[in-house]
Design brief:
The complex is a heterodimer of chains A (117) and B (113).
Chain A (H helix, E strand, L loop, with lengths): L4 E3 L2 E4 L5 E6 L6 E7 L5 E8 L2 E5 L7 E4 L6 E5 L8 E8 L11 E2 L3 E5 L1
Parallel strand pairs in A: 2-11
Antiparallel strand pairs in A: 1-3, 3-8, 4-5, 4-9, 5-6, 7-8, 9-10, 9-11
Chain B lengths: L2 E5 L2 E5 L4 E8 L5 E7 L5 E7 L5 E3 L5 E5 L4 E6 L8 E8 L7 E2 L3 E6 L1
Parallel strand pairs in B: 2-11
Antiparallel strand pairs in B: 1-3, 3-8, 4-5, 4-9, 6-7, 7-8, 9-10, 9-11
Classes of the chains: A mainly beta (117), B mainly beta (113).
């Protein structure tokens, strides 16, 4: 069964460093998402991406964050200068079409745990 | 704004007992509701979804959920718990337009033998 894959499973970085989290969405999917879960808190939406541009973003997704689909298979989340509070589990998801109204299911990866020291 | 509240961060049941995981939503418009499950070291997997058709929704692995508008609830149930059901369960709501899911805090289900 096709699945969303995320690498690495755990990333440790020093405060102020740039990190890139990588995701390979399901191959025929058109919509891509990033969510994060800070330890002990809710899973929070960060951004959705369609047709090579951001379609929606939350207030969390500030100028420190960017997303890119550099080729036909990868979808990346970059954090330019990490802060301690960026430590969280980051989930990538994809859907075959727009998911509003429950029209299409979002399929999630296993997550990347980011630890900022 | 839409929001979801899951009552009980941890629920413990005996194998074979009824599983009841609670979810209440807040939405000014008809909601689209989901239950996801996360097994250790795996991604979030969709269990079931409510999209304004039947109010009783059946999902995978014997789970079902009932949408009750009067109670703004979408509780998840399973008649008989199995050891393999031990996982974290998330309730989520989606807008009609736009693509973000709004999640509850999650409930960790423990199944005792």
């Amino acid at each position: 069964e096709p699945e969303v894959t995320q690498t690495p499973s755990h990333q440790v970085t020093q405060m102020g460093q740039e990190v890139i989290l990588r995701c390979v969405p399901i191959s025929n999917h058109l919509y891509f998402y990033w969510y994060r879960q800070i330890l002990g808190q809710k899973v929070e939406f960060l951004v959705s991406f369609y047709n090579n541009e951001i379609s929606e973003k939350s207030e969390i997704f500030d100028d420190q964050f960017s997303v890119e689909r550099p080729d036909g298979s990868n979808f990346t989340l970059k954090i330019r200068s990490t802060k301690l509070e960026d430590s969280a589990m980051y989930f990538c998801a994809s859907s075959p079409g727009a998911s509003g109204g429950g029209k299409n299911i979002q399929y999630f990866g296993a997550g990347t745990r980011l630890s900022v020291l | 704004a839409q929001s979801v509240t899951q009552l009980g961060s941890h629920v413990s049941v005996s194998e074979g007992a009824l599983v009841l995981l609670r979810c209440n939503y807040s939405s000014s418009v008809p909601p689209y509701l989901f239950w996801y499950v996360q097994y250790p070291n795996q991604g979030l997997q969709l269990l079931l979804k409510y999209t304004s058709a039947a109010t009783l929704v059946k999902g995978i692995n014997g789970f079902e959920a009932e949408f009750k508008k009067s109670e703004t609830s979408f509780h998840l149930t399973k008649p008989s718990a199995h050891m393999s059901d031990a996982a974290e369960y998330f309730c989520a709501v989606s807008p009609e337009y736009g693509n973000k899911l709004v999640f509850g805090a999650g409930t960790i289900l423990r199944v005792k033998s």
